[in-house]
Specification:
- This protein is of the alpha/beta class.
- 43% of the residues lie in helices and 19% in strands.
- The chain contains 11 helices and 10 strands.
- A hairpin with a 4-residue loop joins strand 6 and strand 7.
- Helix 2 packs parallel to helix 3 and helix 8 (239-264) packs parallel to helix 9 (280-292).
- The two termini are 34 Å apart.
- Bound molecules: 5'-O-[(R)-(carboxyoxy)(hydroxy)phosphoryl]adenosine and zinc ion (ZN).
């Protein structure tokens, strides 16, 4: 039987991506045009520049995804697109392209929640995975602990009250002059530093044990760096220890709270998702503490954890199976929250 082919599109932030996925699990192509070169000099994503680059890249990226998958546009059975959360102008490029394609092909259009798509990356990496399970989602804009009750039913049980984990990585990297995006640079430098050199704060809320807060930690690190700058200390001599101690503090809370959430809720499986999941310490610590607690710990490849369109196509397939299809009046929702359908 001919496989069901979903074309996924992802333009929520600074990656233009397109992918063809067969039956929601088999990735036939996964094309990602990253914009790091464009935003690096500004130390963060410039929304207007991101939108313009998406406009330039979206059609060539779709063409390449079809070519690499060895399929024609007319072979596509449905078009899935990230419609939020993200940057408004950036999201609109993907949504507009998806609407035009679905209309011209006369095939279903399905809107996909970007965070739910990150979680769906786990279905690609572990095709036997079935809900219920707990997902720790840590990205540039979000830090959530989510109970996945069915493929299309997501319940937030913990969230950051201020900065996202990736945002804290990016801001600390910026003050240390490590460039953008900060996560990979801190990850690398931290491997040569002493994680016990500084005792940075870990925040807990007694009434909300699965919530995070990273802004106090970020401020503590930045004021430590500023003290060194005032005293003319060579930052190169302390940067590795600062990175290692900061990273340790972030990973400690992400791991302990997500393992606790799984155990408290009697979930057997804990999945990792989002760009911060590329972090080497997060991957090893989650595996260690989750397994020790008797959980099945699932950690997709780094390529599947950072923004990509295969995860969007996979989540789109699950949405279509559950009966969700959109009209051509679909809009982008920059502030979309988890568990909400518009
Ligand atoms: O999920 P993602 O690709 O985009 C968003 O939806 O936000 O996540 C990007 C975030 C950035 O903040 C980046 O610094 C962080 O993930 N990141 C990392 C690592 N690689 C990427 N953070 C820590 N360690 C890494 N190795
Ligand atoms: Zn993302």
């Amino acid at each position: 039987m001919k496989p069901y082919l979903v074309l996924g599109l992802e333009t929520s932030c600074d990656e233009t991506a397109a992918s063809v996925v067969a039956n929601g699990r088999q990735v036939l192509s996964d094309v990602i045009a990253s914009q790091f070169d464009l935003h690096g000099i500004y130390g963060g994503v410039v929304p207007e520049l991101a939108s313009r680059r998406h406009v330039e890249c979206v059609l060539p990226v779709i063409d390449q995804a079809l070519r690499e998958a060895g399929v024609k546009l007319s072979d596509i059975d449905a078009v899935a697109v990230s419609y939020g959360p993200g940057l408004a102008g950036a999201l609109l490029v993907g949504v507009s392209a998806a609407k035009a394609l679905a209309f011209s092909l006369n095939k279903p259009l399905v809107s996909v929640h970007h965070i739910e798509a990150h979680i769906a990356a786990n279905y690609i990496a572990y095709p036997d995975l079935k809900p219920p399970f707990i997902a720790l989602v840590a990205s540039g804009g979000h830090s959530h602990i989510i109970a996945v009750e069915s493929a299309t039913l997501h319940r937030v049980i913990g969230r950051t009250r201020d900065d996202a984990a990736g945002e804290a990585f990016d801001k600390v990297a910026r003050v240390l002059g490590l460039g953008y995006p900060g996560g990979p640079a801190i990850d690398k430098l931290a491997s040569t530093g002493n994680p016990e050199a500084f005792r940075f704060p870990r925040v807990n809320f007694s009434e909300a044990p699965y919530d995070f807060s990273f802004s106090g930690l970020k401020t503590a690190v930045i004021s430590q760096v500023n003290q060194y700058k005032q005293k003319n200390v060579d930052l190169d001599s302390v940067a590795a220890d600062i990175c290692a101690s900061f990273q340790r503090a972030v990973i400690d809370v992400l791991v302990s709270k997500s393992v606790k959430a799984a155990i408290d809720g009697s979930y057997a499986t804990l999945c990792l998702a989002g760009g911060v999941a590329a972090n080497a310490l997060l991957r090893s610590e989650l595996e260690k503490y989750g397994s020790e607690a008797g959980l099945r710990v699932l950690i997709p490849s780094v390529l599947l954890c950072t923004d990509n369109a295969a995860m969007v196509a996979c989540m789109g397939y699950e949405m279509i199976k559950a009966g969700f299809v959109d009209g051509l009046d679909l809009n982008a929702y920059p502030g979309l929250v988890v568990g909400m359908r518009t």
